[in-house]
């Protein structure tokens, strides 16, 4: 064996010294005399010359020790010196080589160092302590070493910072394959570590992983990536979950490793200039990139040696395996001649041979020191389990690793998914904070409960050996309610509403808001808005529970039927209860549906339920097969059902839907980017099949994860305490809330006082006016650049950037989408837009930028989602001048894309009609400027103005709610710059909220925060009110030179002028708006001053 490696080293030294073999006689004749010159070389060349011959000395030392000849004889030294001199002589004829007799001296020095290192380090004494199990560990460590090239540590803090900078950039889709490949390699490494072990070396693997992370931070020129963090964690998690020593698993792992190696080695074919040098072995390594060369050699030695070692363990003919592997590598290298992105190097075939000899010879050598050597000179434990079984007894540490690994993988997967194009809009807008860490955490909790709820019910019922209907129903509804709670913390309520439909209970509360009944008065005291939110939450949870029942209940039923512990009577009882639940859920979800999403998308509700039951049958069958050890069969079954479900879905879902002027299918709505951006049928089928496959495996993995934690002890005595503690905490929270509403602030208590004293009755009622529409209406004419158009939709579709659209006097029961930018829309006096919406959003949906609208009147805009508006901005920048929006669900909904929104000389009145919405609503990244405009009597507890903009400035305007049940006059929930100057603000007695204004109540999200309230007139017709609600204090707060009429808290007497009521200020009684100027009010005030 030693002679083989020594001969190989001679060949490699000669090969590396004489590359690229471009010998020239002319070069030899010109430079042969240079060989006698002594020339000192650089430090790098000196170290390289020493290191070149050190391995040769090392192997000679080992061989001579073996034949009891420890001393270095002169004959051997002369032999090595002669070899080194011959190399220098040959280098004279190489134009690219610099011959130097000094190199021979350093070569001999390296040889001597390597030779005596054997005895200094006492390697001969260490060899007997080595065991066969150290060989696969050494092979696995080759992979770790390949990740740490060039092995040079650095204490440069800038280099350390550079090594972790890749973690600051969120990875894209291109990181998915490296994670998969690296996960397989780490799993292979852990498999090598586990040779002749009765346990999975999770701790050892974790230590190696942490060492590699620290080393990558410290090693110069090496950076840490998300692959280094995620792939080892995935591998450790899988290793904790699987039996690694089984024959089936070893074969499967070997197949996956070779498949990944083949996939990563092949790329798309293309043009490549094939030259003779591509056929020279090690050409890629001898071209100057030493670090890359060493990394490649170590990695390929690891991979080839690991494959050959697994063949040893499987007791396959190793020589044949090595030959087949060499043939595969040779085929890959030949194919790479035609791949521009790949480097061809036929030396990889030699590396296969080297890996074979290393494993073969070292295996024989180490096995000779052990007893019980099996065939192929490898001690194999043939009594290991031969099936791919799930490990059912993980420790708490393993559970934490599994939990953390799956969560981090889910977080990466969701954010990677969001980086893709052509995602469905419903998916993009799903999460509350665009897939943040907290969003994914609660979504992960939702998936855990969703996946394990059926298994939990089955476990509980089988433990008591009977099916109790009450306990089965309690568990069912409790688990699904917890499932809904977790989901509601992760996704937006708009997304939930899209699925379960709009809530009816809040609408019922708002419908009776003007009732004089004490119950409604009490509701107002406890906050009608909060109670409506709670009612919406409960209604959503109710509908969600019954929707999920359609899949959870059949799954529970099939699991119970497949369980052998339950009697036939118990199974019959479970069947009856389950089908009763399914029928009830069918009635709630479809017969009494409150959303058109399900009824419009699903063509046959009955087939939909049947399809869900078939999905659960496939899932339970796969679970049974996995229990029997047939994981592959389970994968095949779930894949087969996922594919076939696409054809069944053609009968379940609508294939043609005509809505909002578009023709699309249910699959386009669910799986494509939008109704307009359709994708090919094959892509829809792939997305659908992947989704169905994942749903099945969520249930399967949830079932086995729950089975795996049976051995983990739970303190059942603590469960009743937790239940009681939860009830106590909820009771205390309710008492604190009610006490705060009644006694914490007099503003809420006064509502009850007024009710019992009958002082709340006024000589005017809440405004209930409706939009005026004449019996005979005349349609107007739309012009695009003074050219008459058929309708508004045609004009908007044909409009180009910078065009001019004019609406003549008349009524337009039309709606349209504007995609062009810098478009001006001018409406003549009497041009009225009413009664129609587009895309379920509003009358005018603007997707372009910098739009100008003037003179338009708009009313009667309603959509099922209760957020229908006259103008829906989805682009950037909008100016509204002299518009009149009234009697609609909303006036304006802004865009989060940025830009300025300017409103001038306009009127917004009686909005929030029939829904909880706001007069205008602007979103983040925009700036809002309002001048000389009116915002009057918003309804149904909405705000006249709600602005999430970074800058909100309102001047010379009137904001009043003297005859409506609004909430706040101006709500700026996310902070920012808030300027209120030279305005009239009036809060009526019906306003639900006692705060006129708010700032930052939902959390300050803008870097700059200031409040300036000056030169305004504030009027409150309530007994008491408060100027502004603040969650955090802004950097600047200035409230000066305002006139305050009524009992409004929050003003300083030194900086503002006060009147007790309207009469003292000589103003007309409520609900009239004063017409006097601020100067006149100040002049009248002097009558009371001495």
TrEMBL record:
What Pfam families does the entry give? Beta_helix, VanZ
The keyword Transmembrane appears for this protein: yes
Annotated Right handed beta helix domain ranges read: 843-967
Source species, domain of life:
Bacteria
Q: Entry's InterPro entries?
A: Beta_helix, Pectin_lyas_fold, Pectin_lyase_fold/virulence, VanZ-like
Keywords (A to Z) from UniProt: Membrane, Transmembrane, Transmembrane helix
Segments forming domain VanZ-like: 18-121
The membrane spanning regions, by residue number, are 46-64, 76-94, 100-123, 135-155, 175-193, 205-223, 252-270, 290-312, 400-420, 440-461, 473-496, 544-562, 574-595, 601-624, 631-653, 685-706, 727-744
**Is-annotated flag, keyword Translocase?**
no
Q: By what name is this protein known?
A: Right handed beta helix domain-containing protein
